[in-house]
Amino acid sequence: KAGVTQTPRYLIKTRGQQVTLSCSPISGHRSVSWYQQTPGQGLQFLFEYFSETQRNKGNFPGRFSGRQFSNSRSEMNVSTLELGDSALYLCASSLEFSANEKLFFGSGTQLSVL
Amino acid sequence: GENVEQHPSTLSVQEGDSAVIKCTYSDSASNYFPWYKQELGKGPQLIIDIRSNVGEKKDQRIAVTLNKTAKHFSLHITETQPEDSAVYFCASKLSFGAGTTVTVRA
User: Fold this and answer.
1) Which residue among B46, B49, B94 places its CB closest to the CB of A45?
2) With contact defined as beta carbons under 8 Å apart, do A105 and A48 qualify?
């Protein structure tokens, strides 16, 4: 069974640009959640999607958005990039809502904002 | 929202010794407590979890204990091996602890 796939693996952008990250969950998993990981702030929850609807949202500005497609694949978008957005962005999938379920993480997308 | 605190932030142990990592949580309604292991260049991987109706769970050399009254849970690794060196995270309700970097000295 294939794991969670995140693309691209690495990304370099400049301030002010926007970026879209992609996540393909494990087959059969309906929930996809996104996390930002930085050395200073650790793992912080961004949002969760279930059946194409955002079910939970973390404390991030509106520049961070996402969506989920009918095949459960998910994308997240960051607009007007700032230097502080440099981080490892992790996607995780689970069978149902992620708060009480095992999470299966991808290897992440390392975003560098210059 | 949930607040999870994890201690210690770093832990160095001699190969063969035990390692213990502790986490506290704030939401008394929380009922699922997973532990994740993250190796360099990889995403976190679930290693063990416990639900609130159980006080302890063991899987080979790793175990997790839960004290709902005190709102804390702990990860125990016995007979540590070099491959146990990694960063370990506890979690509760979409909130993660800050992580513990475990180094196993040969």
Assistant:
1) B94
2) no
